[in-house]
Structure formats: C-alpha cells, structure tokens
Design a protein that fits this description.
It contains four helices and two strands. By secondary structure, it is mainly alpha-helical. A hairpin with a 2-residue loop joins strand 1 and strand 2. Helix 1 runs antiparallel to helix 3 and helix 3 runs antiparallel to helix 4. The termini are far apart.
Length: 118
C-alpha cells in the first residue's frame, strides 16, 4: 500500500525542509548580490578615478583610500555571497542569510533614497 504524500509514480515527493527553504532564499540572494556587483562595477570604476582629477592629487593618501574604498564596493557583494555559502555548508543557516542580506539591504536602501530624493 502506498501512502499519499510520500510517493509518486516517478519517485519520492520533495519535502521542503528548513534547510531547503534557507537554500532557496540563499540562491535568490546570491543572484541579487551578483546583479548588484555587476550593476555597481561600472559606476565604481568611473567614480573612483574622479578622486585624481585635481593636479597633484595622486600624492594625497586620502585620495587613494577613497578611490580604493569605492573600487571595493562590488567586491563586498562577491565576498558576502562566498562567505554566506561557506556558512550555509557549515550548517549556520540563519547566519548565512544575515551575511548575504546585509549588502543587498544596504543597496536597496541606497537605491530607495536615490529614487526618493531624485
């Protein structure tokens, strides 16, 4: 006798466990991080070189710090995605979502503010 809900003619029914739900959310947020990194890369490359517009500004330490900070913004999305997958594989499911959700939430807030004040 086959119990309903556990077997189908082609195989077993996929059960949405807590880990599967976290994995699905993590996949969606990883895609969002990738899109944010791709979308922000041209802007970061454009804005970072503006620190050196004034003559002699290549000698200022703060210009270099600002430029490298702006250039690192897309890398934070990639780093957050990688770290969150490592945490997920180690079993730290909620922590992985917090790590990957932080840069995405910051990007959403900044885009919302830009749209609001535009």
């Amino acid at each position: 006798m086959i119990s309903i809900g556990t077997n189908i003619a082609l195989g077993r029914v996929a059960v949405m466990t807590e880990k599967n739900v976290y994995r699905a959310i993590l996949i969606a947020l990883t895609v969002a991080c990738g899109l944010c990194a791709i979308a922000l890369a041209p802007g970061a490359l454009t804005v970072a070189v503006m620190a050196f517009d004034a003559p002699g500004s290549e000698h200022y330490v703060w210009a270099w710090i600002m430029s490298l900070t702006i250039l690192s913004i897309p890398l934070w999305f990639v780093a957050a995605a990688g770290l969150s997958w490592i945490l997920h594989m180690r079993g730290w499911l909620r922590s992985s979502l917090v790590v990957i959700g932080t840069p995405v939430a910051a990007a959403v807030v900044l885009v919302g503010l830009a749209l609001f004040f535009d």
